[in-house]
Amino acid sequence: MELIRYVKIPLAESRAEPDSHIEYALNVQGPVRSWTVWRRYSEFQALAYELGREFPGARPPAELPPKTLTSWFSKVALAGGGGGGGSNNAGSVEFVEERRHALERYIQAMIVSDDGRWRASQALQRFLAPAGKGAARQQQQPPAAEDSGAWLGDQRGAEQMLREVRQSILRRENALARNEVSASHQSLLHAKRQLADLARLLKALELRLEQLRPALTAGEMLRRQDMLMRLAEENANLSQLVAGDAAVGSGRTDRAALLGSDSSTRLIARAAGAASPAHRPPPPAPPATAPAAQRPAPRSRRVFGNVNPPQETNETRGLDAQGLLMLQTERMREQDHVAAEFSALLRRQREMGESIGNELDLQNHLLTDLDHDMDRTATKLAAAKRQASNL
């Protein structure tokens, strides 16, 4: 289908066949031509249902206006049936106008949305196709091929959701490093919601893949099953990571271990020394427990030349080599972004300094010229005094 620039619904008309109803005129503007499509409200509802099947778990950019009890009265009044008064007729016309504007916002929001999957969806293309071409296109393209393409699109959407979950977890860790408790909590809740939506989407993809089994080859079926399995494993790993983050109360130990601070190293060494049987005092002497547990603490201080073993964190726990590489790449990208912002700030400061220096040079030149002018004026005044004395 050609690219659609915008969709307008300028008017609504009442129809008596096959039953009393109201149809809305959709003026569709393409890059070259435009056409008009007539749709009734039930067809808008069918479009919303098809979009829900095509993109399970996703919400459209705008909501479809609900079907209220006054819709039946509006149809009857505009169709000329029933002896309603003028006030009822005016109220019905107002209701239809409100619905017309709401339907226009519903369609136009999908056309101009930043998420291109809505305007590229098969359901919306069939809905806005010129009269007589939607059915022909549906006959030319088998439903199995259409569903197969939609399945791949949803699978790419699931991969994008996984990337967004990782970004939410990284934002939480950065907020914890800056001691921003509220921001870290919001990022954690956002990651949980994304994981719940992702789990529903993966379940729907699994069911739809079973329905597509007769239309796919054995190799393609195995390939898609492997894709689903990888997505499910990554979803499980991220779910465990988020659950582990939620179980940590303050998050100080996590943050300290992530940053590699000396205090966390001493805390781990102290805990290891307290739990070690070699440093545990005999049971009959409980007062000696505390000094024995604290005695190994000075030994755990970092000495030049000694390398502490890397500690596992909740962020890296459950990640494979590919996941660790992606995490490191994200961290390096964030550091590059911060460095770029700092470089831009330094560049602006340098430009301001150069501008101030140029202004000072200009003022110095002006002061020098003023000094020369004063010297010339003094010379002329002296000559004038001599001439006055001669006179």
Number of strands: 4
Query: Unreliable stretches, pLDDT < 50, 5 or more residues?
Result: 69-87, 134-146, 249-298
In one word, what is the shape?
flat
Name given to the CATH homologous superfamily of the domain at 6-140: Phox-like domain
Give the class-level CATH name of the domain at 6-140.
Answer: Alpha Beta
Distance between the termini: 103 Å
- What is the succession of H and E elements? EEEEHHHHHHHHHHHH
Q: The biggest beta sheet, please? A: 4 strands, antiparallel
User: With helices defined by DSSP (H or I, 4 residues minimum), what is the helix count?
Assistant: 12
Structural class: mainly alpha
Query: Which value, in Å, is the CA radius of gyration?
Result: 37 Å
Query: Please, what is the average pLDDT?
Result: 75
State the share of residues found in helices, binned by percent: 55-70%
Classify the fold: give the CATH topology of the domain at 6-140.
Answer: PX Domain
Query: How much of the residues is beta strand, in percent?
Result: 5-15%
CATH-defined architecture of the domain at 6-140: 2-Layer Sandwich
Subcellular location: Vacuole
Region (Disordered): 131-151, 271-320
Function: Essential for proper morphogenesis of the vacuole. May exist as structural reinforcement on the surface of the vacuolar membrane and be required for maintenance against rupture by osmotic pressure.
Pfam family, one: PX
